[in-house]
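User: Can you predict the 3D structure for this chain?
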Amino acid sequence: MNTEIALSVKSINKYFHEPSTFHVLKDISFEVMKGEFTSLIGKSGSGKSTLLYLLSTMDNDYEGEITINGELVTGKTQNKLAAFRNAHIGFVFQFHYLLPEFTALDNVMLPALKLGRKSREEIRHDAMTNLKLLGIEEQAPKQANKLSGGQQQRVAIARALINEPAIIMGDEPTGNLDTKNTDIVFDIFRQLAAERGQTIITVTHDPEFANKSDRVLELSDGELL
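Assistant: Here is the predicted structure, written as structure tokens:
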């Protein structure tokens, strides 16, 4: 495994103020190395999804510091965070959020077209490479709503990879999948970490999924166990 730090979290505290002040995350500190596959677990209400939301830079209302890919993201403006996310973080959610009328290929290409670093031809080539890596290249011309649930989730992973992000973050990425497709998605993540040095952080309720990853971080009542 690489010795580079992909993500550093220092003394994170998060409060909700409605209806009354509640201390959600309590003095959380940890590091994730490049190429590490980490699962975040904990009971409902433990704070794991809140923590992922902070790590993903979608929520910047917290105390402490978060550094991603060597860059301090704490304190950046919303516009800068949006640009940073598109360039450095890939997302895989429980629901795939594909555009139903677009083809699988078009869905994968979208974040790269938005980033605008490469030509359309290069992006198309990268998108096809990712679909091939995930074993669904033959689904490229199909509309997203014509694909099975497992295929849609693999398209979502291909989309998450398109900008070569420092980190892929998953929020219950197998929550809607059957056992067979859960195993496929796990194997894809494992392969990405091992072969591409891809850093992966997933929130999961699935203990089997978590226990097979490189490392498990467990939250309980807002504290890291």
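The mean pLDDT is 90. Strands lie at 5-16, 22-33, 37-41, 63-68, 71-72, 89-93, 167-171, 199-203, 215-220, 223-224.
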